Amino acid sequence: MSDQASSQTTPGGVPAGESPTYRLVVVGGDGIGPEVITGGVRVIEAASRIFGFSVDWTQILVGGVAIDAFGTGLRDEDLAICAASDAVYFGAIGDPKYSDPKAKVRPEQALLKLRKELGLYANLRPVTVQPILAASSPVRESLVKDVDLLIVRELTGGLYFGKPSETRYTSSGREVVDTLSYTEHEIRRVVKLGFELARGRRKKLTSVDKANVLESSRLWRTIVEEVAPEYPDVQLEHRLVDACAMSLVTRPAQFDVMVMENLFGDILSDEASVLAGSLGMLPSASLGERRTAHGVFGLYEPIHGSAPDIAGQNIANPLATILSGAMLMRMSLGRADVADAIEAAVAATLAEGYRTPDLIAAVGEQPDTKKVGTQEMADAVVSALIAGSSLVVPSRHTWVAGT
Ligand code: IPM
Ligand code: MG
To answer: CATH no. for residue 355?
Structure first.
């Protein structure tokens, strides 16, 4: 691409010469993580040239690769690098060689530590169904085709972090305890975020709890009721988690934003992901309270795991990571323009027939199917991004040099 800076503005409307620089940390991690994140980084780099911004990337090791290299899944200095950045762009972690439940260090501890130490209290998992995948969901097409929901999962409290969490050895045998604890502040901030997000969408919030049994859920429900009057425009409902799990399959299109505590969110978000037809398409954002110069600090990752069985083969689907990059641009960098362009490029790429093997397995092969690997799929998104942006840019525009 020739990128001479002769125009006055970039397609993103940023005056040439006022190119902002964003500080992003990139974590490839384990398994397919490095491959999908490479694809994602290439898309953001292409966007930077089109929209006229720069990215200052810092790469760090987290997860099994960090245990191998340093004996710990996350070093303090790398945590500090994340804390000083605008956002973290994350591949995946998890390595079967550390999956023994008795193992002292496990890659997942690094992820939990990142969430806790960076104050990433809210995990956003949007579930939408790409038209090409609607028929491939195990749930009937007529039920999933209008699904557009957003799970907001509390991420730094509840059973995952409550103390005590231990096994006790008593005279009558082993005994174990995990603790579900929340402060009022922890509940209120995530509930408020749920209302805010609902306000920007279809204005419906479902609060999920187990208030018929758990004390923690009764405080949760009380706080939701206390916050609700601040959002009279948002329609609120309370659902018990067990019944809600059922409705997610029987009537998924009724949900808009759903807010819930950590473990409920872990479980229901995996359930909801099935609606989309392929795990390889779903992005996520984990947001903190800290504001950066551009937006809210966050960590962005595909919801799929490290898939060690297909690692290193260039066959993993990078679209969930690329879509996570779009969420990063929108939420942490305040660049809805770039996010919209990336999302449109992904839709265009799918419409053109590009398919990684997981998508072919899900939707079958059509005459226009173009079988591609991880990097070729990312290339196709880059091409669609360039094609899409030149369509909206008056012809007098030329490219503005990026990084
Ligand atoms: C997730 C994962 C993690 C979690 C694991 C890997 C610790 O399942 O992000 O949903 O339980 O939160
Ligand atoms: Mg999970």
So the answer is: 3.40.718.10
